[in-house]
Write a structure and sequence with these properties.
mainly beta, seven-stranded mixed beta sheet
């Protein structure tokens, strides 16, 4: 499975960050696959944001839940992250990743990743 992130590299404070992950070599509806977003702020460790599972249900990190939405477009084999009310603390490299057959909220458990995309929050 190959994953590719896309989206704007610069977002203004208070706006919504929106990123898309395009998946090839496999379907996002395949059973027991969990499609996640993970980020790494500069100088910090990996932070798991949330996932959308093969059935379409979602689960988010409690610390980001109030601002996060993950959705999917099965016709395009894509899933999307929206993070609202961003601040400079949301500046990070954002990754999409996949795990199967068991879900994990530990970024280090994920073996298949996109290459990552830098998002900077600045006016």
């Amino acid at each position: 499975v190959q994953l590719q992130e896309s989206g704007p590299g610069l977002v203004k404070p208070s706006q919504t960050l929106s990123l898309t992950c395009t998946v090839s070599g496999g379907s996002i509806t395949t059973k027991y696959y969990f499609w996640s977003w993970i980020r790494q702020p500069p100088g910090k460790g990996l932070e798991w944001i949330g996932y959308i599972r093969y059935s379409g249900s979602t689960y988010y990190s409690p610390s980001l839940k109030s601002r996060t939405s993950i959705s999917r477009d099965t016709s395009k084999n894509q899933f999307t992250l929206q993070l609202g009310s961003v601040t400079p603390e949301d500046t990070a490299v954002y990754y999409c990743a996949v795990i199967s057959p068991f879900v994990s909220r530990q970024a280090t458990d994920y073996a298949d990743w996109g290459q990552g995309t830098q998002v900077t929050v600045s006016s």
